[in-house]
Amino acid sequence: MMLSSSSSFFLNSKKPLNLPIKPRKTPILYQNAPQQPPRKKPNMDGTTKYRRRSSYGTSRKSILKKSFNQEQVNFTAPLPDDPLVAIIGGGMSGLLCALSLEKRGFRSTVFDTGVHGLGGRMGTRLIEPHHLLFDHAAQFFTVTDPKFGQLVSGWLEKGFVREWEGTIGEIKAGGRFTTFPSSPPRYVGANGMRPLADSILHQATKVDVVRPCWISKLEPFNGKWYLSENGKPRGEFDAIVIAHNGKCANRLLSTSGLPLIAKQMKSLNLSSIWALMAAFEEPLPTPIPFGGAFVKGVYSVSWMANNTEKFLGSENKGPHCWTFFSSAAYAKRNKVPQENIPNVTAERVKAGMLEGVEIALGQPIGSIQKPFYSRVQLWGAALPTNTPGIPCIFDPFGRAGICGDWLLGSSIESAALSGIALGDQIADYFQNGKDCPDEFAIGLEKEFQPLEGHDIGQFPGLESEPSTKESPAYQLAA
Ligand SMILES: Cc1cc2nc3c(=O)[nH]c(=O)nc-3n(C[C@H](O)[C@H](O)[C@H](O)COP(=O)(O)OP(=O)(O)OC[C@H]3O[C@@H](n4cnc5c(N)ncnc54)[C@H](O)[C@@H]3O)c2cc1C
């Protein structure tokens, strides 16, 4: 249901309110009411005890209930001349949304949780004192869209990215390696994916970046969106962009007054992937020297990449840093809370994945040298497995949009195109949406379709078959 009012914003109220400028301590929004103390439940013996409640109403059921029952926000305040947009998420999509708004003359603030830098799933880790460098999420990307191509050319000129000329291919269990053709070109961050993310806004004058910051609440009020981080105000904005997904986004949207957007976000399914970063004293016994390989027919490993080759070239003699990714099926079976991985799980996953590497390389189990450094990480919300196949979602009544890889696919390119599209959509809306805002609605009811690709995403232009369960090695490692 959509409600509107003669005041700039009101929700779930029968008559217009005389609204104060700042949000009240006790917000008028029913969905933002302060949390009640735990309810007392009578016991059989007549005493009472506190019923345990999940913290912050975070269960899937409670989020769903809140998401679908909330009423639609309707901003009716005149469109401001110089709007400020909040972008929650500083991955590729959020950064390019900010850049696209900047190019159209609009201001934005990007909020990101990253402690070490921006980038989200463009993650790079530097381990001292050995100076071990790992890209531990996105590995490389391809380009098919001219708009994205133009951006990448600029990054090439500035030295933010370069072509990865190392050998990339497919390795089948037992060590059978097939090299992919060198076209289309593969691009990598010159010093890793995260430094690329940190460079994208280097010339922006209309973008503020706030990190590390975890936006925990969005409150529409009096014609503005008010953002806060665990009770600490983080500013007021004329429009918001959700440039992240998964549980966190569902929680944020569950009480925001954006039921259509919340529903679309809830329709998204995500896989999980374990990453194992491992540094070896000696080179691994690969069939031929290669930079990266999609692994086929091995249950616990779907990708292996030689970061030392990628960053320092094949001649480098130093420690050999590898990134291994599990298959989505293996991660599903070994899923734990990603913020709190039990040691026993970490050890089991590490052993299982190293065994998978041996199977892939056709080496006897237990024969490969032990890494002198290793670390596992679970990407709990790694990659989308379905998509609405639309560049972005925008709700002009709630002045809110979503961008992210999942709207178009599962790659850096799709994240970039989604961010650019949403930035343009919001700019168009603020420029021309005064009289007929509904014309700027996009993607609010688009249905989802399954998404094909590798376990670690899509690489437009690079063709390869997905893993099959029929392979004997897959069965062996399972
Ligand atoms: C293991 C793995 C391997 C991959 N390999 C490749 C590859 O080789 N090539 C390729 O093209 N793609 C690859 N991908 C996919 C690619 O990384 C993603 O498609 C792309 O980076 C997604 O960008 P995004 O902006 O949509 O989201 P994200 O990168 O996830 O960015 C979202 C950001 O929002 C932040 N955030 C979340 N909640 C909040 C909040 N409440 N407040 C503030 N900030 C918040 C997050 O911390 C994050 O920084 C891989 C992904 C994974 C997981």
TrEMBL record:
TM ranges: none
Q: Which residues form the signal peptide?
A: none
Pfam families per the UniProt record, alphabetical: NAD_binding_8
- Gene Ontology CC, one term: chloroplast
* Disordered: annotated segments: 21-61, 455-478
Report the superkingdom from the record.
Eukaryota
Instruction: Please report the name of this protein according to its UniProt entry.
Output: FAD/NAD(P)-binding oxidoreductase family protein
Organism, per UniProt? Kalanchoe fedtschenkoi
